[in-house]
Fold:
Amino acid sequence: MAYDRNNVFARIVRGEIPCQKVYEDEHVLAFNDIRPQAPVHVLVIPKGEYVSFDDFAAEASAAEQTAFLKAVARVARESGVAESGYRILANHGPDASQEVLHFHVHIFGGKRLGRMLPRE
Ligand code: AMP
Structure:
């Protein structure tokens, strides 16, 4: 799938839309989700143009991938949930209901999160 440079996270990376930033480095930006689903709900995104996890895993450089992985752990730690526990989640594609077509990982924490997926 082609990357849409006007998606909302691309606009956040370019500074066209504000965000509640919690971390930034050369390759990565992290900010609070606008509709939090847990006391801690942070989104971590690469600054590069990748549609989803599948695209990021296939196309991003080793430096981008390493920076991203380390940033997710760092943001979780700095959000205070490394001891109590947290969940990371990346939606890819229609069955996962991916809404924003710029790769992102959700970090959820700050409460008991229950089972991985709701029972049908
Ligand atoms: P997903 O279903 O994984 O694509 O989730 C997209 C997430 O982006 C949702 O949790 C939204 O609440 C969040 N979101 C959408 N627009 C913004 C925004 N402008 N700032 C922060 N989070 C946003």
Observations:
- The chain has one domain: 8-109.
- The chain has a mean pLDDT of 97.
